[in-house]
Amino acid sequence: MRSTPGTEAFPAHTPAAAQIFTTVLSHGPLTRSDMAGRAGLSAAAVTKAVRPLMEAGYLVEDAGDEARPSLGRPANPVRVDGGRALFIGVKITGNEIIAVLTDLCCRIRVARHVPLDDREPKAVLASVAALAQELLAEADGFGVRVQGLGVAVSGDVDRAAGEVRFSPFLEWRDLPLAELMEMTTGLPVTVDNDVRALTVAEQWFGAGVGLSDFAVVTVGAGIGCGLVVHGKVVSGAYGVAGEIGHVVIDPTGPPCHCGNRGCAEAIAADPAIVAAVREATRLPVADAAQAVDLARRGDPGAREVYARAGEAIGRAIATVANLMGPQRVIISGEGLAAYDLFAEQIRDAFTASAFGTAAQCDLLTRPLPFDEWARGAAATAIQSFISGPTRGQG
Amino acid sequence: MRSTPGTEAFPAHTPAAAQIFTTVLSHGPLTRSDMAGRAGLSAAAVTKAVRPLMEAGYLVEDAGDEARPSLGRPANPVRVDGGRALFIGVKITGNEIIAVLTDLCCRIRVARHVPLDDREPKAVLASVAALAQELLAEADGFGVRVQGLGVAVSGDVDRAAGEVRFSPFLEWRDLPLAELMEMTTGLPVTVDNDVRALTVAEQWFGAGVGLSDFAVVTVGAGIGCGLVVHGKVVSGAYGVAGEIGHVVIDPTGPPCHCGNRGCAEAIAADPAIVAAVREATRLPVADAAQAVDLARRGDPGAREVYARAGEAIGRAIATVANLMGPQRVIISGEGLAAYDLFAEQIRDAFTASAFGTAAQCDLLTRPLPFDEWARGAAATAIQSFISGPTRGQG
DNA sequence: TCCGTTCTTTTCCGCCGTCAATAAAAGAAG
DNA sequence: CTTCTTTTATTGACGGCGGAAAAGAACGGA
């Protein structure tokens, strides 16, 4: 394996140690007996796994204790020291690069974004590298080293190989992005699909913590879906998974860029909504914000468009629930800004279309700040750091 | 754990041993070095795992060798001795009980079926018990003990708990079927959903061998789907998964018993096809066989119905492929008798609706003899036998 | 001060799988 | 016919991980 100067290896020498660390990472301060219970290990094993992690400074005793049950030896909760390591997450969209500096607990310390006009790999790589350098300089201010870089790109990405197989928005094909970025930054790089990266963030640091089966649905420029089944993110045998955007909702609906008609994305994604509102109102609506505005001010045509969109999203989510029976679906994305306009329709359509006990699946909405995508990328870098780099061993 | 007299424990004392055994079970005769490669273990570990299994007679050296590479010590392939143990699989439908006696390799030795008119649990249990006794008597003829009983029921089944939570066709609710059957038969009993059982059979003994992600789609009285993701069968957090039959294909389509319109099942399941053919032709078509007959003889109305059904199935399969990106979809079920009538439409609709590389997923059809469902139940029993009973430890 | 309780660590032990060396079973070479 | 080469399988030593049980530690209460 290539030696990356300046980065250190995470001292989890056994799978159990990594498991315990991630348990503490996700579930906040935990006593050792809690860890043993959650991880299904003996208390002795916990002690042995925790020691090297504390010695290395990744775990610390949590002084801020309260509400102890007043009997017996007081418990000694342990938490992750987020400040022990930093990570950079980068999301590359078709017209913008968003980068964040996060700590080990995936809390954002610094966020930056720059516009992107040239989509050639070379130019993009240079922009990303420059942004990474800026954040590395910021990291110096914290006196802590950056241990990894995560990059999120939409499209078909092979995380294990570190390659972008095909990215429609960027028009990239078979680009060994991880290797290239490692050359320019000197950091271990993890590349993943953007929706999957967001799903990883939810799984470790968000509303998916502790769940073995859940889905993340993103509504915005497109409609995407990340799936976790049996505790692991689904990648699909051929790189495609969670394409909820192309579930056909209405075969007589508007045409979709995929070649079919009435896909969820062709009804409920931002461009589709804007187009439909424009057609319904005959007004020169330019973007989603104007469409939302119009609907909020009570325009019946616009409201109807949002109602339809909500129904489409609800039906698409129900399809996911019927097929894989998740415990929870987390709805997120920029499109959530319009949530008040279609929340009811989403729930109604979901309830109507969910079959049997699949309807018990709970729907959760989660606001998506603009830097959340980049945070997802950082989460993948954290994941790689903890589980050890698995790529590039050939 | 309850001691089940007459049955013995499988001598796989370590997870690695069980893994190696199932590898040999699924991949036919293998040399020890092959096993090591496939299981990701060292040759030494294989030797140690194989020995007790051979001593117990579950593995035997495969004398029938051929085509050796003529250099070095000849390899010594090992295979599972199917005749070492027998299993009973039972499928309970709304009007029939099908039971098979299989060997350890899930090859059917004897098959029986009896009609079922009383759906009360008591009566059904009595019928199943009688059938099991018959097969146990047959097993005596082979001089080999029956080591387990698998029962497959449609609906919401909790395999771990051994309970039928809800079976619409049988009108059962919260029935501790495994426990009851263990009392009457004295065998370890595994209860599972019928489609999942079929999926297990494909995963271990069929077209799903060696695949970590695939789907089984059944077409017949209903439309079902079993999913394997990350090498494990998906059960759904609330017991529901793979409900492909209620993917909405056409919101203006015929009403479905689930309350929606245009579900795949309301278009392409046997009853829906019969009803549609009857309406299209104004002929008193009684069952699927007559409908197929009519279509094969060229009736345009009937052919159109099948074409629509094929399109619905293809779209439903594409939905699964888009969401979880399986390597393969295995199409099966009684409805496959009409395969020549809609094969083309299934493939065309799948190709049109599959997104990107998800279309690389290969579609495979597989005839489904009447006793295949029961064989699936036997496969679950074999699985439980090998991995050790996990139920009833509370 | 002693005791009971609860959390944590220590010590010992068994088990499993790998490593490296060895044995085994052929055909090929001399 | 012996010896070498090649590939497969087995053996035995070793190390590491995790568990059981006992000891230790930290507290409140009697």
Automatic annotation (TrEMBL), chains A, B:
<dbReference type="InterPro" id="IPR043129">
    <property type="entry name" value="ATPase_NBD"/>
</dbReference>
<dbReference type="InterPro" id="IPR000600">
    <property type="entry name" value="ROK"/>
</dbReference>
<protein>
    <submittedName>
        <fullName>ROK family protein</fullName>
    </submittedName>
</protein>
<dbReference type="InterPro" id="IPR036388">
    <property type="entry name" value="WH-like_DNA-bd_sf"/>
</dbReference>
<dbReference type="InterPro" id="IPR036390">
    <property type="entry name" value="WH_DNA-bd_sf"/>
</dbReference>
<dbReference type="InterPro" id="IPR049874">
    <property type="entry name" value="ROK_cs"/>
</dbReference>
<dbReference type="Pfam" id="PF00480">
    <property type="entry name" value="ROK"/>
</dbReference>
<comment type="similarity">
    <text>Belongs to the ROK (NagC/XylR) family.</text>
</comment>
